[in-house]
Specification:
680 residues, 25 helices, 73% helix
């Protein structure tokens, strides 16, 4: 429990000290301010506010006054309200965002709902200025990340830090002063806040590697800052990250931080250093030395009333005296002192954990009645702590409701004056909408008519192919069969065999045409199902390649293939095989006797393969290539030995490849051959 309250106190000190934007590089002025009492410094900052001549200086004075008032709760509340009211009067948007970011931190400890309101206000203003938008946004994310870490919302904390840290780290040191003068943001301060928050985050996740990574980044920022308060705080934060794993390194930086605190009378730093020294000794099982450091801290506090720090020191002393139960009287005395101070400061967290410590103590002694009473107080306070935030949220919602109700009354008075303008505007909007709808209906009708015209053209072409390319061969085949029947007895065996071969060739071409028509019709009507799987392409092509090679040999054409042993592709097996078969058949058909056709499959990028079919056949003109895929102008040509063609084959290949998200590419020159390729 001691470690938790040390962490809490360190966080509190960080808000109070490190995020003060008014710290100056003039160390003599700092020492003067530290030697004054807190009340005197508070009045000094108020005076600075009155004497300041610009918004950013007045804002800084108010912020420092609010920080100095942390031991005076009522005064601090008044100053925070004064600061919130003043921010609304600031006209410079960049300064206003900086002010909201500061209010996020100052309200975060007790009023998280207000912190989120200021966070949203800051984000809403960001679009109004482009130059420093990212810096101020990162500063806002850093502030809200720190606040969410206090409430253990570490998922949000991590998200905000991932947005903020890269932006802050990207700024060059030469721009620091310019950014500070224009926006008020002290980048070293924001980076320290971000790194310390990351340190808290990864300590919670027990990720020591990340803790040390951000501690090392923190040290780089600490070493380049000229402000001694920041430097001391950074050294102590760095030391805490290495207390368990590298105690010697930790001790070195505790001493550095403690030395700066003592030399400059920074009592917050002195307390934090003493407490870390105490932790160091406790981790090394040297409880007397740990107690000694905290008792020294009490001595340093004499004459410098800092009740919050005194309460934290007394609590940690009580914790240490209670570890081995050797000094029960001192343990109880310290516990009661903590209770008195915590009650006067309304520090319910310290009250709760002290009652828990007393309950454990009495249970150890066997005084179960007192143990029960103290545990009961602990549970009641913990319930109260959990409900406080809910109560603050309800109060906030009530205040917002009252504000909105007042705004509604103002709007009601102005509403009558605007009714006529609203009616005119509404009428214009309705007219525009009606005209837009009318235009859209006409557009849809035109597009539908165009689609119908295309469908009719496709249908007409389909029937034209059936009536011409299918009807004529069928009629020719019928007449040929009649001629065969009529002359069977007159022809010799050789004449009869030759005639039958020609008749069979004609029938094969007609069947090929019929298959092409049916395949194309299935594609157009959606009747061809698409079933992609991963398969070995060379294996499934082997049968078709063998058949087409025989066809090529009959024309004395050389068919070569350059195919790997295995090529795993994803697609519909039947469709891909159909495409390759059609392209190879076409190549053989339009290549003259003695020509050459090749099939190549080679690896491409993104685990794909390129399939290429090339020939040295008759080729095509540019005009013929342009009309290859137009259903209205399909190119129907005969092969080099009068093989029949319909022009549908390439169109089918193109549409089958499109189902795979691929494209059929073509290069051709008349009289020199063609090359077709696609990726799969």
């Amino acid at each position: 429990m001691k470690y938790y309250l040390l962490l809490f106190t360190a966080v509190f000190l960080f808000i109070v000290g490190c995020n003060s934007p008014v710290k100056t590089d003039n160390q003599q002025v700092q020492v003067i301010f530290e030697t004054l009492s807190r009340k005197e410094r508070l009045e000094k900052f108020k005076q600075q506010f009155e004497e300041a001549t610009n918004d950013i200086d007045r804002l800084k004075a108010l912020v420092d006054a609010a920080i100095e008032a942390d031991d005076f709760p009522e005064e601090r509340e008044k100053l925070l309200q004064h600061l919130a009211d003043f921010v609304e009067t600031v006209s410079d948007c960049e300064v206003k965002v900086y002010a909201y970011n500061t209010l996020i931190l100052l309200n975060g400890e007790n009023k998280i709902s207000l912190s989120f309101i200021y966070f949203q206000k800051a984000l809403e203003l960001l679009p109004k200025f482009p130059e420093y938008r990212e810096i101020l946004k990162a500063d806002a994310y850093t502030a809200i990340a720190f606040v969410t870490s206090l409430f253990h919302d570490f998922a949000s904390t991590q998200q905000y830090l991932l947005e903020a840290i890269p932006v802050l780290e990207a700024q060059s040191e030469k721009d620091y002063q310019k950014i500070k003068e224009k926006t008020g943001v002290v980048l070293n301060c924001s980076l320290l806040t971000a790194y310390m928050t990351a340190d808290l985050l990864y300590k919670f996740y027990e990720d020591q590697e990340k803790v040390e990574e951000y501690a090392n980044r923190l040290l780089i920022v600490v070493e380049r800052t000229t402000d001694l308060y920041y430097r001391a705080l950074g050294y102590l934060s760095y030391a805490q990250s290495f207390l368990r794993n590298e105690p010697e390194k930790a001790y070195e930086y505790i001493e550095k931080g403690f030395g700066i605190g003592m030399d400059n009378q920074y009592m917050g730093i002195v307390y934090m250093a003493c407490d870390v020294f105490s932790m160091y000794e406790e981790l090394n099982d040297n409880i007397p030395a740990a107690i000694s450091w905290l008792e020294k801290c009490l001595e340093y506090l004499e004459g410098k009333p800092r009740p919050f720090i005194e309460m934290a020191v007394l609590y940690n002393l009580a914790y240490l005296y209670g570890i081995d139960h050797n000094n029960e009287e001192k343990h109880l005395e310290l516990c009661f002192k903590v209770l008195t101070l915590a009650d006067s400061l309304n520090a319910n967290n310290y009250l709760a954990y002290t009652y828990e410590m007393l309950g454990n103590h009495y249970a150890y002694l066997g005084n179960y009645k007192e143990a029960y009473l103290n545990k009961k107080k602990y549970i009641a306070l913990m319930d109260e702590l959990k409900s406080e935030e809910s109560i603050r949220e309800i109060e906030f919602l009530n205040a917002r409701f009252d504000s909105e109700r007042r705004e509604m009354k103002i709007l009601e008075m102005a509403k009558k004056e605007k009714v006529r303008k609203i009616q005119i505007f509404t009428g214009l909007c309705i007219s525009v909408i009606m005209l837009t709808l009318l235009w859209y209906m006409l557009y849809l009708r035109t597009r539908r008519n165009r689609a119908l015209a295309e469908m009719n053209a496709t249908k007409d072409k389909f029937f034209s192919i059936i009536s011409h390319d299918l009807k004529n061969p069928a009629m020719a085949q019928r007449d040929a069969i009649r001629q065969l029947v009529k002359n069977t007895d007159l022809w010799n065996k050789d004449e009869l065999t030759n005639y039958c071969r020609n008749l069979l060739k004609s029938a094969d071409e007609e069947v090929e045409l019929l298959y092409s028509l049916l395949s194309w019709a299935q594609i157009q009507t959606g009747g061809m199902s698409f079933k992609p799987v991963t398969f070995d392409l060379p294996t499934h092509l082997s049968t078709d390649i063998s058949l087409i090679r025989k066809l090529a040999e009959s024309k004395k054409i050389t068919l070569t293939d350059h195919i790997p042993n295995h090529a795993a592709v994803t697609g519909d097996i039947n469709m891909i095989v159909t495409v390759v078969r059609n392209l190879l058949t076409n190549a053989v058909k339009f290549t003259p006797v003695g020509g050459h056709v090749s099939l190549t499959i080679e690896a491409a990028q993104n685990d794909k393969y390129t399939v290429t079919i090339s020939d040295n056949g008759i080729g095509m003109t540019h005009e013929e290539i342009d009309n290859l895929f137009c259903i209205d102008n399909l190119l129907s040509r005969k092969g080099t030995i009068d093989e029949q063609g319909t022009g549908l084959g390439l169109l089918i290949c193109k549409e089958l490849l499109e189902k795979h998200g691929s494209v059929l590419c073509i290069e051709s020159e008349e009289g020199k051959g063609s090359r077709f390729w696609f990726e799969i």
